[in-house]
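Re-run with default settings, no changes from the original entry. Doing this only to confirm the output is reproducible before filing.
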Amino acid sequence: MGTLVLDATTKTIQAVMSGAAATSNPEFTAAYADSTSSTLTEGANDGALNGTTAVTLVGSPGASTRRVIKWITIQNKDTAPVTITITYNNSSGSTSRQIAKVTLAVNDTWTIDGTFTTTGGLKSGGVTGPASSTDNAITRFDGTTGSAIQSSSASIDDNGAGTFVGTVNVSGTSSGPADLRLYEDTDNGTNYVSLVSPSLLAANRALGLPDPSATTFTAASIDQTLGYINAPVNEQSAAYTAVAGDSGKIIFHPSTDANARTFTIPANSSVAYPVGTVLTFVNMTSQVVTIAITTDTLYLAGSGTTGSRSLAQYGIATAVKMTSTTWLISGTGLT
């Protein structure tokens, strides 16, 4: 246990806050014993701090008396963290010695033996936090003192899964762009997906936008992706009308279906594919597949004729959306 001694009538122990309390000033208690050549008398003091006005925790002893301070406590009764400076003052020499400067979280208590939490635990390192927190929340520094922390809306659960609210910023450095990697295993594995920003950006960019000059998502672009390493196959053995999710896919008529089929490109009013959307059609059966258009216009590449097209066996055709209501189609086995 720490001990302080006042051995002159000019010496006191004082405390002052760095600013006014939000609702309630911290409260203090002090216990001491006055010793003379023939007597030992115990005494105590208590009260509250007063913002930036210094408050005497333990007054000076009488003449020919040594005041031995056995205990001092200061508890933060406020609704926010408070910073308190405790000093050893000698008015005869106008000298003030700092004993401690501490930031107390709500309901924490400073003593001459250290700072304690509401559960009686001794804090170390001078870091203080809130009276309560959200389970699994990531702690953040509160202010710039380096000694106060606070809770946050971001969290990491017991399995290591992170949850963040709002924007997550990953910044590059002067020596290179940011690199966000997703690994296959918890030990980082050998394979990963890497998202790397280009070295030069003329403007903000968002993934999934159909047009590099665009800066915001639209309803038509919500279903867009970065594309595929291999084009997915959508096998159809009946009449079929393409959907938004078919963008970038192959609509496939298998050889096991020996029937003529009609695959329809829907009107823009039904499915608003972004300009640049690609639909690919493959026909493996001996029967003709009709590639139909509704109220929009389907142009045949090289001739400019319009209307539905026929795709023969082993034929492959690609339709590209050129404007909101026009498509251009070309291929092998296409008439």
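The first strand starts at residue 4 and ends at 6. The chain has a mean pLDDT of 87.
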